[in-house]
Structure formats: structure tokens, C-alpha cells
Amino acid sequence: MRRLQAPILAAALLLLAACTSAPPRIGAPSSTWLPSPNFDDRRPEFVVIHHTSNETAAEALAVLTDPKREVSAHYLIGRDGRIYQLVDERKRAWHAGAGRWGGDADVNSSSIGIELDNDGAEPFADGQIAALLALLDDIQSRWHIPRANFIGHGDVAPGRKVDPSKYFPWKTLAEHGYGLWCEATAPEVPVGFDTTLALQALGYDVSDLRAAVAAFGRHFLGTDDAGPDLSEPGKAVLACLVAESRRP
Questions:
Q1: Residue 119 DSSP code
Q2: DSSP line for 32-73
Q3: Are residues 162 and 62 in the same domain?
């Protein structure tokens, strides 16, 4: 085979480079493109945990990868503990909808979403939770997310979502450093304690107070019926959690 002469080879390489160049930039078309190396991909600040409500992981995967459904997550963990990654952690998945937590009104843009293969009416499999903890360890090694920022879909969308259900073992996660937890035997409620302000301080959207109370009860009290207002033990847990959230 004859070797290409140097000018021809150079031209061929330039043509190949043009064919494999990066996609066009997104920006003002009238501007001059002078790319700077000084930028980052988005940095996740929260992990939001869901249950799928499907009967099988295959059904959930079909939904999460269907362009017509416009819903996704970064990860799905099957009942058998198998982990599927669907979206790059640096990219924005569509899992939280109109979620709000604290001052963040766009949780999708600041979080990693993890779906658990579970219909919402069953305990979570031990192997699945072990896989989740391993995944959280791996995520934490990259992003160093504050322990208070591991939350549920129902927390960021009270009244609209209830996942993960009351069966989810938040205490187990907290024991491994992911999320807050206080026992029902927390200290007494402080004098002048305000439930609404405390829920808001923890991160809940209290525009629908009853929904926020229900979401809190599901996460931290293991009940779907926290009532229109919290009981005294529930308020004590809430006060304890607010104090825990302020610790380094």
C-alpha cells in the first residue's frame, strides 16, 4: 500500500477532526467563541430517593427510558440489588418535578435522583438497601453531600408525592451518615415551639401545612396519618431534628 504524502495526510487528518468535533456550542450566535477552561459541570447538593410504584424493575426501566414519558432518574436499584445508571451524575435528570426544599425551588437541577424498585406497599428488600448504601458511599466519595441533604421525593413535593413510603428505613440510612434521624423519645418540646416555623427550618414547603405535616410524619415517624397537627412526641422529634440539622 502506498503511503500518503505529508500534505495529503495532513488534509485527511483535518477532515477527520472536523467530522468528529464536539457538538455546536449553545449561546449567542452573534458572539465570538473563545472557550475558557475555567468552568465546572453542575455540582449535586442533594440526593432524592424515590420508589417506582411499578411491579418490576423492567417496567420501571421502560418508563424511565421512554422519551414520551419525560421522566428519568440517575439510578434505579432493583429488588435484587442490581444498580442501573440512566443519567450522568453531572447532568439534570427529570425525577423531582416541581420539587422544593428550603430555598431551592428547582431540586432537579441540584440533586441526584435514585429510584428503588418497590410498589410502595411493601418493605424494601435487604439486598436492595445494601446496594443503596454502597451507591451512596460511592456518590459521597465524589460530591461530599451534607448528611441533612439526603431526602425523599415526598419531602420535596408534599401533597403531591409520598415516596419512598413509610416502609423506607430512614433510620438505617442515618446510622450510615445519610440523612437526619431522632428517636420518638426525643427531649421535650421547647416552650413556645412553632411547628410551622420548625418544618420550614428543616426544609419543608409549608404553603400546604397539612401536606407538610403528613410528609414529615411519613419520613420521621413512620406513619401515613400524622394528623392535621403533630402530637407532642412528634413535635419533640421535629425540634430534635432542627437542632441536628444545624450541627456540622
A1: -
A2: -----S--------EEEEEE--SSSHHHHHHHHT-TTT----
A3: yes
pTM of the entire predicted model: 0.86
Q: What is the CATH number of the domain that holds 67?
A: 3.40.80.10
Per-residue pLDDT at 77 exceeds 70: yes
Q: Per DSSP, which regions of the chain are E strands?
A: 46-51, 75-77, 83-85, 111-116, 150-152
Residue 232 among the catalytic residues: no
* Omega cis (within 30) before 164: yes
Q: What is the span of the domain harbouring residue 109?
A: 46-175
Report the C-alpha gap between 169 and 172 in whole angstroms. Answer: 5
Considering 45, 59, 115, 122, which one is annotated as catalytic?
115
The pLDDT-based confidence of 27 (bands split at 50, 70, 90) is: confident
Are residues 205 and 103 both part of a single domain? no
Q: What is the torsional sign of CA 10, 13, 15, 21?
A: negative
% of the chain beyond a pLDDT of 90: 73
Indicate the pairing of strand 46-51 with strand 111-116: parallel
More confident residue, 38 or 5: 38
Terminal-to-terminal C-alpha distance of the chain: 68
Tell me whether residue 110 is in a domain: yes
Confidence of residue 229 (pLDDT cuts 50, 70, 90): confident
